[in-house]
Design goal:
heterodimer, A: 295 residues, mainly alpha, two-stranded antiparallel ribbon, 11 helices, 4 strands, B: alpha/beta, Rossmann fold, six-stranded mixed β-sheet, four-stranded antiparallel β-sheet
Chain lengths: 295, 239
């Protein structure tokens, strides 16, 4: 045990770890929002509910089908992603040509409905979900204790984020997506089924939220309002990073998680507001966000 | 060139089109035969671009008949029309800023076999080869962007090319290069429907012309009639 700036290393690195964990979820969620906004021009306020659905999906799989964490990690994002695609076909597709406000209201309302239904059946106390057997325990790194599951969450989130970035910025499919974000009419006139691509993109963004939900289940309790608590901060992250920027969402997600964690160590009173203070400053200095392209 | 007994590659009959409330095309009729270069002439706002966009299926509200290789396309979405072998090069060129030059060039998927290999596209547009490493497609000069916009649709195997004012705003030397390209493409059997304001340029590449005014075809002429009808053309085009 040693001290840095008069703070015991356990406390400092412990908060840093919590910051990275939170940052992982901020990054995954704001990445999904960025992908959806880029392609659909819709600010997906159902995102928090979809994250919660991912966690509940994992819970149901374990409870009623006996299928554990690893299965849930694949099945939950697929199931919630498909649910998202149904929402896109039923509701969102009619809103693309309207003002952002309509999409925002619709997705916000859907989120409230979904969360309300779950609160009605499951209360708000939260249901436990166990860390998978293979990731129980932890490592003593000397300066701190690192639970295996938390290390996994950070590494795997980072991997998913970078894989998504690669898919969008470096592959042919990603080129279609970027081009369709700029000029969907022309991309469609090249023979690409843009409406189907939009549906799949929404499903993918929603799937990312559900994936984050599954990963969060063993750390936080599975509860109907788990998404609502998180999503406000995530929207601040998106605003700071710049709406629609992929790398911006990833970097600001992790970065702000760490900033929040460090604030808890050095000035705990500000830890709940620091992200919003940063958001206010960024909005004043760079209204398009740190990584945004123009206003 | 005109052979009434052959089925035209593209046959447009009584085409009407609207943008929102405004009625742009009021019954357009024309046809294009395989291997021809046909030019739509007319003043600004005559409906030339809207005609091209209707053929491509980009104008949502259209009625009448557009048959490609005998197949009716008036109700097809543009991605299906593209798959039949029609490609569009828009007036504003449509180069994507978030894609680099190579990605722009490779963006349109192959819709039919028989597209030009990249080597041949670079022979037509040597500048493109040099610019392949460039970062952003929109950082190219106007002429290079136009070459990129034409080059990328040659790869796809589409046999009917719709070119909307490919010479607009370009330097004479680039216009000549685009003229040479169009003649080469014609030799290779491409069919081209061209929209032009510059009929001096059009006369160096086209076989036939249709003149449009107020959303209708008001005259048609072959390249050989151009000299004798020059006065009338000046009147049509207001030049």
């Amino acid at each position: 045990m040693f001290e840095i700036f008069g703070i015991p290393s356990q406390a400092l690195f412990g908060q840093l770890l919590i910051g990275l964990i939170n940052g992982s979820f901020y990054a995954l969620l704001s990445l999904g929002l960025a992908v959806i906004f880029g392609m659909l021009n819709i600010i997906n306020f159902t995102h928090g509910a979809q994250y919660m659905l991912g966690a509940f999906c994992a819970f149901f799989l374990l409870q009623y089908a006996g299928l554990g964490y690893w299965t849930a990690l694949i099945v939950a994002p697929l199931a919630v992603g498909i649910f998202g695609m149904i929402i896109e076909r039923l509701f969102l597709q009619w809103l693309y040509k309207l003002d952002h406000l309509y999409g925002l209201l619709l997705t916000f309302g859907l989120g409230l409905i979904i969360e309300g239904v779950f609160r009605n059946y499951f209360g708000s106390s939260g249901l436990p979900y166990r860390v998978p057997e293979s990731l129980q325990g932890g490592q003593n790194l000397g300066f701190m204790f690192l639970p295996n599951y938390r290390a996994w969450v950070i590494v795997f989130s980072l991997f998913v984020c970078l894989a998504t970035w690669f898919l969008i910025e470096r592959t042919r499919l990603g080129a279609y997506l970027r081009a369709a974000t700029e000029n969907p009419t022309l991309v469609r006139a090249f023979g690409i089924n843009v409406p189907r691509m939009i549906t799949l993109t929404y499903g993918f963004g929603v799937g990312l939220a559900a994936l984050a939900g599954v990963m969060a289940a063993p750390i936080y309790n599975v509860s109907p309002q788990m998404g609502a608590d998180l999503i406000i901060v995530v929207f601040a992250v998106v605003v700071i990073g710049g709406m629609g920027s992929i790398m911006g969402a990833i970097v600001t997600g992790f970065g702000l998680g760490v900033v929040e964690g460090l604030t808890k160590v050095f000035f705990p009173e500000a830890s709940n507001t620091v992200i919003f203070i940063i958001m206010a400053i960024v909005l004043l200095v760079r209204p398009a966000g740190l990584f945004g392209r123009g206003a | 060139m005109l052979d009434a007994t052959r089925t035209p590659l593209l046959a447009v009959e009584n085409l009407q089109a609207w943008y929102g409330e405004s009625h742009i095309l009021h019954g357009v009729d024309f046809e294009v035969h395989a291997g021809e270069v046909v030019t739509l002439l007319g003043r600004n706002g005559a409906g030339k671009t809207t005609t091209l966009k209707s053929v491509m299926g980009i104008v949502g509200n259209r009625t009448g008949s557009i048959r490609f290789e005998g197949k009716e396309t008036i109700n097809l979405p543009s991605n299906h029309i593209a798959r039949l072998g029609i490609a569009f090069c828009p007036e504003e060129r449509g180069i994507f800023a978030s894609l680099d030059v190579k990605e722009n060039l490779l963006l349109p998927p192959e819709v039919k076999p028989g597209g030009l290999p990249l080597e041949q596209i670079f022979e037509l547009f040597p500048n493109l080869r040099e610019r392949l490493g460039s970062s952003q497609g929109t950082k190219l000069s106007g002429g290079e962007q136009q070459m990129l916009a034409i080059g990328r649709i040659l790869r796809t195997g589409a046999r009917l090319l719709l070119l909307d004012e490919p010479t607009e705003g370009l330097a004479p030397v680039i216009i000549q290069q685009i003229g040479r390209t169009i003649r080469t493409l014609k030799q290779q059997g491409f069919t081209i429907l061209l929209v032009e304001q510059n009929f001096r340029f059009a006369s160096t590449v086209a076989d036939r012309y249709y003149v449009m005014e107020h959303g209708r075809i008001i005259d048609r002429l072959a390249n050989s009639e151009l000299e004798s009808k020059l006065d009338k053309l000046h009147e049509y085009l207001g030049v």
